[in-house]
Design goal:
Layout: E1 5-11, E2 23-27, H1 33-38, E3 66-68, E4 72-73, E5 76-79, E6 86-93, E7 105-111, E8 121-122, E9 130-140, E10 149-158, E11 194-195, E12 201-202, E13 210-213, E14 219-220, E15 223-224, E16 236-239, E17 242-245, E18 287-293, E19 332-334, E20 341-344, E21 348-351, E22 356-358, E23 360-361, E24 366-369, E25 372-375
Parallel strand pairs: 1-5, 3-10, 7-13, 12-14, 13-16
Antiparallel strand pairs: 1-18, 2-5, 4-8, 6-7, 6-9, 9-10, 11-15, 16-17, 19-22, 20-21, 21-23, 24-25
Length: 392
């Protein structure tokens, strides 16, 4: 099957890299788009839902947000740090200006490799015809701590349902890493009641009937009160772009994918770096459009938790003490635990891929320690001063 494609817009601000340190939705065009371009950071509890209070939108651009039910659409994103991928959901609410009590219904879930290798989305026929609100949520794999990203867009659906009977049967969108929410949209509860496991790809308790699982995902269910498990009956699940029928919520087989990618369709492989593979150098063009293939060839399946792997000599380091013993100028090394996060001191990391590892700088404000990406241990009682509007 031909690899599935999606267009990822990489916006590089060389003079102010901290300002564009994350990802935001670009298509469908979201509410408060210009504000999101300046603030791509994760959502706080006060910003739920949609990370907006104004729901500002230029109605003359609604034509670009009009979608026919049943037709495959492409999502586009803008930003520079994909944080090693992660898990995403596409959801819809019939509320035109959602509140914390709105019910978002899942129309598609992606476990691992998102937003670097998302599969796009299809508006199901059960969504009512007319104006509704589309939502993209993202749980990054290698962030400095538990985070949730969310953007919403007003869209117009054509050829959909005349009522919400079937739409209401769709699973509720997962809420995790947000204080005061119990795990599904429209519910509040104990602080921190649903939390992602650090440095893993979040496994959705109820992904719905349309699920895509990346072959290299290290899936772990969130902890706490995260809503019901299980899903709708008929599921379309894929591993590395190959579709198959499986129960939603069941990850792809844990056997490694073929280690030799097809010569005619080389896959862009994510080694867990801050920048997507193939993206422009931060010092080059301001904005670059990158088309990524979602082929699973060459990407191992990480079915076990990330563990500390000891790099071999030549490109190696010790994860304790932050001292690196790699040879000058070396950008790669070897490792033994496939799929593991490998630390090169505290400032560099990589994902073990069939015995090889390519070193990447960790995101600002984070460190690599004991086989995981964590918030950097800060001096001065843990206080960290940063420029207004920037995210670490």
């Amino acid at each position: 099957m031909a690899p599935k494609l999606f267009t990822l817009a990489i916006a590089m601000l060389a003079a102010s890299p901290m300002v564009s340190a994350h990802i935001n939705l670009m298509k469908p065009l979201p509410y408060d788009y210009e504000a999101h371009r300046q603030d791509k950071g994760p959502m706080t509890a006060n910003e739920y839902p949609c990370k907006t209070q104004t729901y500002a939108f230029d109605s003359t651009k609604m034509e670009g947000n009009t979608f026919a039910a049943g037709e495959k659409q492409q999502a586009e994103f803008e930003g520079s740090a994909v944080h090693g991928g992660g898990s995403c959901q596409f959801s819809i609410t019939t509320d035109k200006k959602p509140t914390k009590d709105s019910k978002f219904k899942v129309i598609g879930s992606i476990e691992g490799g998102c937003p670097e290798k998302p599969e796009g989305f299809t508006i199901p026929k059960s969504v009512p015809t007319g104006e509704v609100t589309f939502a993209w949520t993202w749980f990054a794999r290698l962030s400095g701590g538990p985070e949730m990203y969310m953007n919403c867009a007003p869209i117009k659906v054509t050829g959909g349902a005349s009522d919400t009977t079937e739409f209401d049967k769709l699973p509720d969108m997962l809420i995790a890493n947000i204080a005061g929410y119990t795990g599904t949209s429209g519910s509040t509860g104990d602080t921190g009641s649903c939390t992602q496991v650090t440095s893993t790809d979040l496994k959705f308790p109820n992904p719905g009937s349309v699920l895509t699982t990346d072959s290299g995902a290290d899936l772990k269910a969130p902890t706490g009160s995260c809503g019901s498990s299980g899903s709708s009956d008929d599921s379309s699940s894929s591993s590395g772009g190959a579709e198959s029928s499986a129960a939603a919520g069941t990850p792809a087989a844990s056997t490694p994918a073929a280690s030799t990618p097809a010569a005619s369709t080389p896959a862009a492989q994510n080694t867990g770096g801050v920048f997507a593979p193939g993206a422009a150098n931060p010092s080059s063009t301001m904005t670059t459009l990158l088309t990524v293939t979602a082929s699973g060839a060459g990407t191992p399946a990480a079915s076990t938790p990330a563990a500390v792997a000891t790099p071999a000599a030549g490109g190696s380091s010790s994860s304790s003490g932050g001292s690196s013993s790699s040879s000058s100028g070396s950008s790669s090394g070897t490792c033994s635990s496939n799929g593991a996060i490998v630390c090169n001191g505290t400032s560099k990391f990589g994902l073990c891929n069939n015995g090889n590892v390519v070193w990447q700088d960790v995101a600002a404000g984070t460190q690599c320690k004991d086989g995981a990406i964590t918030k950097r241990e800060l001096p001065h009682g843990g206080r960290y001063f940063r420029p207004r509007g920037s995210y670490l």
